[in-house]
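Catalogue entry: protein

Sequence with per-residue tokens
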Amino acid sequence: MAGQSCSQLSLFTPDEVEFMAEDELVEIVPNLRMDSLNFICGDYGPFYPQIAIQVPLWLALALKKRGKCTIRPPQWMSIDNLTQVLEGERESHAFQSLPFHYVEISRLLLDHARDDIPEIYMVRSLVEDIRDVRFHKVETNLENFTASAVTWKNMAAMEVNIIRAFSGRALQAFYRHENEQLIPDLDRTQDRQPQNLNDRPRRNLRPR
């Protein structure tokens, strides 16, 4: 670990980014009554049949796997909204507003809550198209990277993870380059400085 560079340590694997995304809240509709569930991260419930409640994504997936609830897809995953976002991504150089973990949330829901998502194939296609367009923007921004152009708004977690190592190294390079220009040449500076009288070699004044 000690031998790794800072840029390597700052990167997260896709699994790690997905793990962090599982703390995002989603809405579920329980199909049975349950008392509150108590965890270190918080308490959730009580749960009542057909009454929607918000829980972390990891808990929603666990209850879904056991057949105890259905998951309501977030509003941003509707076909109308995704279509609008895709059009905006294609027409603008800016990133459209989406949840920070939209890639991970959509993948988990599409993989584990298929029967809860209307027109799932269209939703999956739109999400993949949006992701591809945004990743292309990331690549373009990296090609045109300058020290003054580092405020990219509305980037998602996976996109930030892609550029973290590159941008960190680039900014370090810019910083070193600017500092080198500010640091004078020590040899030339010493040559220009007046010689201290006390440093001159003294003549032997004793009589022969």
